[in-house]
Amino acid sequence: MMGSYNILFAGVGGQGVISAAGTLARSAIASGLDVRMYGSYGMAQRGGSVSAHLRIGEKVLNARIEKGEVHMLIGLELIEAARWAPFLSPEGVLIANDELIPPVGMMIKDGGAGLRELLRSLQGAVILDAGKLSGPAGSRGVNAALLGAASSVKGFPVKAGYIGSCIREEAAGKSGPLLDAFRNGMEYFRKRGLMRGKLLPKTKL
User: Fold this and answer.
1) Is the pTM of this model over 0.70?
2) 3-state SS track over 97-158
């Protein structure tokens, strides 16, 4: 891998943004890659904005990702996905969970229709219902489903097997529902022809 692959996780406090980024970071290390991670907690305990910058490559010197340098933005919530969208590179991919988190999310009068329209106008943008894909795994399953979706995108640096193994190790005997959610995220892409090398622009799942 030449250079680094830059991933930005964005969401609000309580969604497990830092934990999801940490899972991917450990998976990348297990696969033999170098990783640098930077987390911004903001007002996390009050449901405020939380983000995590993750740079993965053969040799990475720093973690901070600047505007226009994000290869993949994983938005756990629609408002935060839109907030960080300007950080995407011209060929960047956005995977957003179709969810609005209160209290700010509940103030959106159109129920998020405008945000969805904005995000879908971006090339390489995908909005999915990760809550539905998570099944009985709940909020942790949402993040597992998003990681499964991300692992299916062309150029993603960490193979699904390493992420699955990391999820299994972290959750120990309770990993079953999380692994199901992870596979659901992958399968959702597979059924729509969006696997590695086939990501379509302006796509709604």
Assistant:
1) yes
2) ECCCCCCCHHHCCCCCHHHHHHHHCCCCEEEECHHHHHHHHHHHHHHHHHHHHHCCCCCCCC
